[in-house]
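Troubleshooting: if your tokenizer reports a length mismatch, compare against these two reference records.
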Amino acid sequence: MRTDFTDYRFRASSLGTLMTGLGKPKLSATTQTELKKLHRQEVFGKRTDIRSKYLDKGIQCEELSITLYSEVKNQFTVNNKTRKENDFLSGECDNAQKIIREFKTSWDLSTFPMYDEEVKNKDYYWQCQAYMELWDLDEAELIYCLVNTPEGLIIRETYYMENKLGFADVGLPDELQKEIINNMTFDDIPKEFRVKVFKIPRDKEAMRQAETQIEMCRLYLNELSVLLAGELVTAL
């Protein structure tokens, strides 16, 4: 059970959720809500396992995405296994060969940012900023990859569609099954079109602001601990 958050180090992947209202003298309601979730998890050791088909594919296909990027860029890229931390953050980036590389595996063609010109997900932007800070590197690449969906996830998607469309007892018609497979595999698309790279420069000033925000977050977490202790005394 953790109740003192004075020197708590936030995960790089969660930094973006805390940056709403950055630069203001008071934490936003959104940030406070996220901190309450975090406080419950840390105090009671109970973590909500948020899983989705998108996350499952990302986890299962990380190596495939790195391989695809390596082939397209003609560059040997290895998956980083080192975790780093400083006074404010901790994290394990996907790759740190001269620059930070963070890989995101798209679920399908509709979620692949083929035509985007800038990073639209602020959480990923802050995640890359955190990794550049931890590894002291000045550039990052946020890399989206479109690779074939693992067979197990295709089977799960087929089962879902069978129930959704009323074919649970007889199975999907062949044409629908073929459509699912076609929409979840991408070998027919040239590799060069299945890698999208967004370059993100390091912003040291933004990180100094983030550190100030983290200090405020730590104070708020400690306030929640005091509140919780008071409620416990009252209950007894």
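Reference record two:
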Amino acid sequence: MRKAFLIMSALVVTACGRKDEQPAADSPAAATPTLSYADFAGRWSIQLLGDMSDSVLAMFELNATADGTNWTMTHSGRAPISVRAAVEGDSLLIDAGPYKSTAPANVDMTTHGVSRLEGGMLVGNFESQYAMAKGDSIVRGRLRGTRLP
């Protein structure tokens, strides 16, 4: 409920803002860099963390190409899973699935993540959705990634 209130408050403040105001040339909004797939290219070790703790829920290796094609994520002991990637401004969006989960076993799941480069690391949020027999289950949390050599 608290998150819903914060989101709604942010939307109201944004909607009530003046549309004719432009950010100053030296403001952070004006200086937001536009990145490309090449900025994220390489191998990354990604950790999915609990929303309110540093508990590692899952880990995988993200293999990213400079042209945005053929990205994959590989969980330990599993075949690579195809990832759809998009770069928007300073953000990387990734989507994977549906693919079979290991826990709970053999359940279709999808994963969506949004991250940014901060100090050479990927940091952001994720949402994984499990297609359970009694209704979907959603897990949300944080992600962090370090570039592998």
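Descriptive notes for reference record two:
- Residues 66 and 87 are 11 Å apart (CA to CA).
- The first strand starts at residue 42 and ends at 50.
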